[in-house]
Amino acid sequence: MAAALALLAGTFVFSDVNAARFHQNILNLYSKPTAIVEIVRTEFEPGSCVGFNPEMPADASLFQQERFRLHLFYLYDYAYRRMHVVDWLRDCDGPLLTYDLAPLRNVPGVTVLGREVYSGLYLVVKDSEKDMTSCEPVGEGDHADSPRLPASHSLERYGSQLADLPSKVGVYRDGCLYSDGRQGHLVYGPYVHMSAGKYRLVVVGSAPAVSSAFVDVVSGECAIVHAAFPITATESSGTAVLVSARIVLNEDVSDLEVRMWVAEGDGIRLDGYEMTPLDTSTPSLD
Question: What is the chain's alpha carbon radius of gyration, rounded to the nearest angstrom?
Fold first, then answer.
């Protein structure tokens, strides 16, 4: 009898541990925001209107249904509310979160900035609001012949390699890219093939004067925003790590971009960046 009771007690302990892990995984999945929140907070002032189209997919999962409440928590200081597309076009001065792009396909002046991979939720803005994060035009041959980079290789751009990257507001000098004081993308591209996996992104440079600069990682002609990170001011013009973060690519991509956007008057020097595979055999702290 004693042995049976001990076995039964062990079973309950094991069950409790599994249940705790299950609920923790659910909590992590449902409560973690994506880059959409970071883009909204970086590009739109608190108090701005942020619309959420209440039209849900016919087979919407619980995960999709809960996105409105999740973003309500993280966008607490915005005028965030449910509104139909027609109301957003007429009354809202900020972005729209929507699962359904059909009502917007023939509307001029509307741009899709990104999409949540797991939920399929789109971030949409009007043209007057899109200058900060929209795709730059891709020149002929910019990425059609880019080499395949398997997950065991790194993406690196330093020194003279920066001179080969497209830039709208950058000046290349002495192995670095300097912002020229205008608003726009300091760097974008390189439109490379990357395999699904977990990576570490490190961006190096200096940012002694910053207002709202950020780095994002995108693919699918900017339709998919994998991550976005604000750049905070550095104490001096000396070399510093501007971004160090984990990036997860859930599927192979054919046109990966690492972009840096700067605001008017920002003083930033980009020394380079690298995106290297994480060692999945050891736990990550982020």
Answer: 22
- In one-letter notation, the amino acid at residue 1 is M
Tokens of 11: 């079973």
Which residue in the block uniquely carries the two structure tokens 């917007």?
Answer: 104
Amino acid at the residue 75:
L
Give the tokens for residue 265. Answer: 């008057």
State pTM to two decimals: 0.57
SS3 string of the chain?
Answer: CHHHHHHHHHHHHHHHHHHHHHHHHHHHHHHCCCHHHHHHHHHCCCCCEEEECCCCCCCCCHHHHCHHHHHHHHCCCCEEEECCHHHHHHHCCCCEEECCCHHHCCCCCEEEEEECCCCCCEEEEEHHHCCCCCCCCCCCCCCCCCCEECCCCCEEEEHHHHHHCCCCCEEEECCEEEECCCCEEEECCEEEEECCEEEEEEEEEEEEECCCCEEEEEECCCCEEEEEEECCCCCCCCCEEEEEEEEEECCCEEEEEEEEEECCCCEEEEEEEEEEECCCCCCCCC
Return left, alpha or beta for 9; rule: phi > 0 is left, psi -120 to 50 is alpha, else beta.
alpha
Counting every residue, how long is the chain?
Answer: 286
Domains of the chain, first to last: 35-129 (3.40.190), 148-277 (2.60.120.260)
pLDDT for 220-275, tens place per residue? Answer: 877 787 888 888 888 877 889 999 988 888 888 888 999 998 888 999 999 999 99
